[in-house]
Amino acid sequence: MSAVPENQSSYLIAAFYKFVSLPDHRDQQRLLLQCCDAHEVRGTILLANEGINGTIAGPPDGVRAVLAFLRRDPRLSDLTHKSSYASLQPFSRMKVRLKKEIVTLGLPEVDPSQMAGTYVKPEDWNKLLDDPEVVVVDVRNDYEVAIGTFEGSVNPLTHSFSELPGWARRSAVLRERDGKKPKVAMFCTGGIRCEKSTAFLRTEGFGEVYHLEGGILKYLETIPPEESRWRGECFVFDERVSVTHGVEPGRYELCRSCRHTLTSNDKMSPLFVAGVSCARCYDHTTPEQKRRFAEREKQVLLAKERNATHIGARIGVKRSRNAESTALPVLYSFRRCPYAMRARFAIAVSGQACELREVALRNKPRALLNASPKGTVPVLVLAEGSVIDESLDIMRWALERNDPERWLALQRESIDAMLALVGECDGDFKFHLDRYKYPMRYEGASDAETHRAKGQQYLAHLNMRLERATYLFGERQSLADMAIVPFVRQFAEVDKARFAAQPWPHLHAWLKVIIESSIFGRAMEKHDPWVPGQERVLFPFADA
């Protein structure tokens, strides 16, 4: 427990999770939200078939009441939690969300309740770090690892947890040697990600797999600093930003524009403006974005002066009366259209709420044709009435409003190079793809094999780029990956066996990782065609 004493002005922070079958989790959402509201508790709780995952904060008695409410369920009677204290409320609102997974690996079939690795107590962790036969892997995201990790551990350089399976399958450090897979130990912030990642490794045939019980937070709480092998600080997903030994608040802050961590030295940069920009993101945001960020920061400061909360409008269910009265952008889309897919990917990752209208292409609604007479999807009608009807323009609109995974912040090359690669996809590759998939639709295109061979030249080029990095422009996804992948997927599905037989191992791995990602799943949920007057569907679904 944190060394900060409990008193009337302190907030108790409780972090908890449990992998357990909860087939009725949807029924628990509203009751749990009401309980948290009644006890002035804020934070986030995720519910799924596979269990519960949450971090909440509030008055100590209120947090204990919520924990007691959860433990009244026999399936959660042994729910454990980690405690710490803060002088300020670290959360702005209370959210209880329904999810496919309580931590998104993208492989729902992996069951940590049955397959997780061997727990290692914090007191025994240092011995494991010293074992030369054990590969120690930090399963957190690259921005978390950047501010602290265990000495000697492997950093997979992933930007989201769902990228870990792809990394593990490609990683040289996890390859068999002399017909035997290595021993592996994994760790994460609180234990939930390493439980799931060790279960994944066991499904991949790894025999000896370990993980740090209670995660980094339990280690920092338990192990004295003079015995600790931890270097740096531990990133946490609340307003504390980072913690140190004893789970004391650390020295980092967040850039409110790009969400990267900042030190006091970072804030000395002339490019740092509180709430607006830092040296990392200054060149990647437009003047309009900076203006909006500055206005947001102004409102936050005014709210603090009034002792009010600026960010606190809660949506507890997918569709609500309040949502119905709010003007939102309207996205006309068709689930299988690759252009519409790329637009949904960008909107989903940006978190920009909109109304989704699924279109039946053989019976296009009059509202779509009024907005864009050419009648092709996607079409985005903004709240003020202007229309964006090109998929790349919709992607850039969404990402310029919010780019949390930095799809526009390239690790190598330039935005122009990225757009050129996408342009090749939309030009020659799409031309040959159409004639390979639908040879009878196009005059003079009956020779599908010729067009397949021409299309394969572009795919071979992509495979060569992917030899250098996990994604097309570095070790994390970019706009290029998500703009191109729908068309590569479409090519692959014309003849799956033939595509799989091609000598493109890097392209195959890239396609698989993205298709199994949470963003892909979120954007590909099915909906009936829209008809005027129906209850509206909010998108992204995971944030509703």
Could you please describe the fold and organization of this structure?
The chain is of the alpha/beta class and 544 residues long. It folds into 4 domains: 11-98, Alpha-Beta Plaits (2-Layer Sandwich); 112-232, Oxidized Rhodanese, domain 1 (3-Layer(aba) Sandwich), CATH 3.40.250.10; 261-305, no CATH class; 326-544, Glutathione S-transferase Yfyf (Class Pi), Chain A, domain 2. Helices cover 37% and strands 15% of the residues. The strands form 6 sheets. Strands 4-1-3-2-5 form a 5-stranded mixed sheet. A 5-stranded mixed sheet has the order 19-18-16-17-20. It has a 4-stranded parallel sheet with strand order 6-10-9-7. The protein is globular, with a radius of gyration of 24 Å. The protein starts with 10 loop residues before the first strand and ends in a 5-residue tail after the last strand. Mean pLDDT is 87; it is low at 308-326.
